[in-house]
Amino acid sequence: MACGVKAAMLIGILITTVIGIPMGLTVMPEEITLSSFSLAPTFLKMDFPGLLGMGVLPLVTAIITFSICDMFDTVGTLIGTAGNAGMLDENGELPRGDRALVADALATCVGACMGTSTVTTFVESSTGISEGARTGLSSMVVSLCFLASCVLAPVAGIIPSAATAPALIIVGILMLKAAARIDWGDFEIAMPCFLTIAMMPFAYSITDGIGFGFISWVVIKLFRGKAKEVPVLMYILSVLFVAMYILSNL
């Protein structure tokens, strides 16, 4: 990465995987077979009676919590990766970002029907952007590779976490570049931004980081007598975050 080598992260992952073989970190599969490949155990296996049978409060809590988590994980990742790609406008907004959100929402619904965990936008997209990806072609290639991994899971499972962890650290470095544009001299801005950045690793959640940033910014504005400067949407989102934290701890 320091020398500007193309595909440096991919090369690093592959080399680390090979080095891990004699060290016992890379476990080779005993056999590669498709005999156990089936969607039947999870495909369209929604348990609506079980969901509705738990009561109204758990249902509302689950809807609010997962909706906020999925939406703000996606928004945070989109803005961060788009910033690295130079796709944000002069106001720091992502043109046609609504299309990306719709695509993510559809993927979430389809993924749930397939029985997988929440399908969302991943920060690892920064790896492609750092190599020059801009048009979406790299995303198409990655999607085809994921499709192939459905039937080649034993091969994909060879790569150990020790090989991917360093790549994620580099992704974090790439994401942090945008922090240089924050006005750290203005505490009204610096405090919410710091909480947003700090709470993400502490809470292990992009959503919690954004939530703490939103809430702290609104509180600071209110106590400084600048309530009119806060958009109505920010009030609504801050209240939803507070409600989510309260409901999730009942």
Written account of the structure:
With 250 residues, this protein is mainly α. It has a domain at 183-250. 64% of the residues lie in helices and 0% in strands. It is built from eleven helices and no strands. It has helices at 8-23, 48-52, 56-85, 97-114, 125-130, 137-151, 153-156, 161-176, 187-203, 206-223, 232-247. Helix 1 packs antiparallel against helix 8 (161-176), helix 3 packs across helix 4 and helix 3 (56-85) crosses helix 10 (206-223). The longest helix is centred in the first third of the chain and has 30 residues, at 56-85. The N and C termini lie far apart (46 Å). The mean pLDDT is 82.
The pLDDT mean sits at 82
Distance between the termini: 46 Å
The portion of residues assigned to helices is 55-70%
In DSSP terms, counting alpha (H) and pi (I) runs of 4 or more, how many helices?
A: 11
Overall, the morphology is globular
β-strand number: 0
For the report, how would you describe the main beta sheet? Answer: none
The ordered H/E elements are HHHHHHHHHHH
Structural class: mainly alpha
Uncertain stretches? none
β-strand amount: under 5%
Radius of gyration from CA coordinates: 21 Å
